Amino acid sequence: SSRYGEFNYFQHYYITNNLRLRMPKVRRSRKPPPEGWELIEPTIEELDAKMREHETEPHEGKRKVEALWPIFKIHHQKSRYLYDLYYKRKAISKELYDYCIKEKIADANLIAKWKKDGYERLCCLRCIQVRDTNFGTNCICRVPRSKLDQIKIVECVHCGCRGCSG
Can you tell me the distance from the alpha carbon of 148 to that of 144, in angstroms, rounded to the nearest whole number? Predict the structure, then answer.
């Protein structure tokens, strides 16, 4: 008998790769989550389900970047949810917050920016990276609304934000 059981190498390769594409990625570590996880788990699971739904939804008729906007929005929601629970409402423990950061449930870099003055409402990190723009400036969504034309609707090319600077 071969090391692949009843299958030959090519059948084994096909089966494992197709299962890997269809199965959701489990990212939880073997270490059990800290106390309080059961309080935030339903919200995190709901946002993960929305994320999977938007990842698989067809994007015909949309620009390539527009298909990613809902994913950026949900990513922002998850990070903001944990940021608010820990820093604003102080409803979760440091251990639970660190666990969520370590498991990449929330974006540590985005949360670090939210703690700085002027970045409290930042939508995504790509909007402040000057290397991604033509003229070496921030994204249009970082311009205050008072300085923009009131009639024209402005959307960020990266994440679809309509103004995160205030």
Answer: 7
